[in-house]
Amino acid sequence: MSIQFESLSFRYPGSGSEALRGVSAGIDAGVVTLVTGMLGAGCSTLLLVAAGLAPRVTGGDRQGVVRTLGHDPESQEGHHALAGRVGLLLPTPWTQLSGMSYTVRDEVAFGPANLGWKRDQIADAVDQMMALMRVEDLAQRDPRTLSGGELQRVMFAAVAAMDPDVFLLDEPTIELDPRGARLVYDLLPQLAEDKTVVIASTDLDRAVEVTGRALLLDRGRLVADGDPREVLGSASAASMGCSTTIAGIMRSAGLEPVYPLTVHAALRRLGR
Amino acid sequence: MILGFVPGTGALHRLHPFTGLSLAGAVVVLAFALPAPGGAIGLSAALAVLGLWSRLPRVLRTAAVFAAPFWLFLSLIHVVFGDDPTRALTVGGQITAILLGFLLVLASVHPGRLVDALLEKRVPFSMAYLFAATLQAVPRLQARAGIILDAQRCRGLPVNGPPWRRARAVVPLTIPLVLGALAEVDQRAIALESRGVGTPARRTPLAPPEDSALDRSIRVSLLILSAGVVLIRVIG
Fold it and tell me: Same domain for B74 and B148?
């Protein structure tokens, strides 16, 4: 397993309640794994814990076992072993800027440079990922002048340029227009062929098209884990609002669960 | 107002970051060691010319805005209510020269280049980053204050107009500015950790600035000049 949680609980400092409560799950490469839930469900916290940033940077109290690529990310040994092997994309790309770069190209190169790569290797990775995310035209722009969508694509390129084994993507399309979001979602299954890809997203209409597994969190508890069609098409997911627009419509129309999640699935279900 | 790096290709921008920092250091020494009041005034004038030559006229305006209150109070104390205009010229000149020196260096030294230059000298990345980030602290706060003021203006708070009205706008600005800055520390820590900072590997300087013979000779000249002026001052 690339990522393993066993009875994981987490509480932020000064918080009266736990952000995660007894979560147990294993995540591996091969399919895109979706983590979803209502606001405050703990999806972002789960990614921060897997990346080792919670509680090491955020503070707080973690209970239970976490193994990322076989290491405890909270330990010093794990921190060093996982350096550059776990790529975390934050939902607020402007807070992920290095603050040291005055061009987009330098910003994308910031991560690989920190990993001590050779300059040629950095240049190749930067060129490749900027092309992949279609941000080559922005190469000489000041990152602070980019729009939210441009910045999110740049930060995706910046994380991918580090060539991590695990991608932890927190709302990777929240700033993107439909075309930009499509670009990212088309890329994720390719990435997941040999990397572990976890996305925390509430953009379920698009996410369900590329995910092979869904984890549904409710106030810190893992309430469902499995095939997205079953997890997100369930009555409980639909009643929580953690399903697709189509599933919501089918539920309103009085259809019995499991609700279809996409237009195609709905048409099949309705026999058309 | 210009309180941070301004992209450009002027003379100061082309210098090695250490040369810029040496200039700022030498200005502090020379402002106090050169004969008063002409030395500090002349130094300010020389820096103003350097700023214009380096295509940083807005930095001169910023320095003038900051220096103006000092000149006003010095004039009141030493000229209007006192009888020592030389003292006013000396202190005013020193303040202006130091302000100009630091603002010109801040505007022309790219933090990324400074980090790369420090890494070339085997300074640990954490220290290099901390040093460069410190130079950016004021422009960051300035930008954050602008965002908060815009937000408050959107909600109907008058932030323009006469000085007393602007002063009143400072109070509701302070708390979000301070709390926001503290929250940014956490965000920055997460951002840097997620970008490979803190790994055991030694960071690769992406484009280490060239430390040319001209840069080295400027630094040596500034050192000799500063030491010489101090020596003459002590002996004399």
Answer: no
